Amino acid sequence: MQETLRLFEISYKTAYSKVKTSFILHSHVNKKNEQQILFNVHISGTQKKIPTGFYIEKAKWDIKKQRCKDNPDINLILDNMISKTTEIRTFFRLSKKQDQEMSMDNFLLEFFKKTPSYDFLSFFESQMNKKVTNANTLKKHKSVLKKLREYCGKLPFTNIDLQFFTDYRHHLYTLGNNKTTRNSNIKIIKYYLLDAQKTGIILNLNLSDLVVGSCAGNRTSLSVEDTQKLYKVFFLNVLTPSEQTSLACFLISCMTSLRISDLKERKRQDFLIGELNFTAKKTLGFHQLKINKAALNIILHIPELFTKKICEQVVNRDLKAIANRFKIAKKITMHVGRHTFATNFLKAGGTVQDLQIILDHSSLETTMIYVHMDKEESISKVNILDSFFIQ
């Protein structure tokens, strides 16, 4: 028995001596002055540099320890990679494969199979249910997951590479998703892949090579003239009860900047007080908002307004019908009301600093988008000179 154990130990050490690992930095330096950490594997004279997907400045890398100087999270993942290698060595030695020599191809097969062979979509769903608390965000992520499931059923981590994203973007295009929606889908998928990477999963692509693209939506807004037109239509009482309620919600958003998610949570009495104090559904921050006379006139015109639950889908459907009937050229949804408030506020002489507070933007840069929108509209008015010369 002792002789058997001694021979096993010698054989075990011999097998281990054929595998050497280290972490090195890639020679390429990106625009952020960072280099990617590579997992350098030597097996029986064969070398393979496996991209980890993590980048670091050279000054923050400890060459001797082969670890980051100030990022314990990355170091933990690097430790996990070493642990995986040890598990593969042990598995290879103690399994039926012990009569084979572990080649680099065998190692890589086991290395990438060891963790990422299970379904990414299951990981996506699990993490989504744990982390996402905002109802609207959860709804969006569920939609992304649903489309992925309909596309491929199951998605092993091993099948995810840059070509997969090229093919999937084309699939989203065939579904009729616009460019912003396609980019937003890829952004959310990338978010969960980054999450998977942090847990130690080794991916078949460098996530830094996955360019998402702009996710900024088309900020459609109504002109002052179109807003005034709808305001007059509302008081003509020519709409169906459902349309009247939907237009009321939209116009209140145009007058106050309220999002539909916050509007739905308000009770009638909240508005009649003249000031709203609430926790915003999107940002989860406390927000105060005054109710102006224009919005109050709308609320008082419909006694039952905000006494029943509001359905966003119904509101948007009604708004589309109203826009068609009264020749409003732009596609109107509830969120257009918020953009309309912002652009009209600036046209009326409001300052961008005040607008930032009203919109509850954490960054002035976000609010400045509306300044640029207003500027573009002003520039386009050069066409008014055409009336002097072209009949």
UniProtKB/TrEMBL annotation:
InterPro entries, alphabetized: DNA_brk_join_enz, Integrase-like_cat_sf, Integrase_catalytic, Integrase_recombinase_N, SAM-like_dom, Tyrosine_recombinase_XerCD
DNA-binding as UniProt keyword: yes
The Tyr recombinase domain, residue ranges: 217-383
Keywords: DNA recombination, DNA-binding
Keyword DNA-binding attached: yes
Family: Belongs to the 'phage' integrase family.
The name this protein goes by in its record: Site-specific recombinase XerD
Residue ranges crossing the lipid bilayer per the database entry: none
Organism expressing this protein natively: Epilithonimonas pallida
Pfam families: Phage_int_SAM_5, Phage_integrase
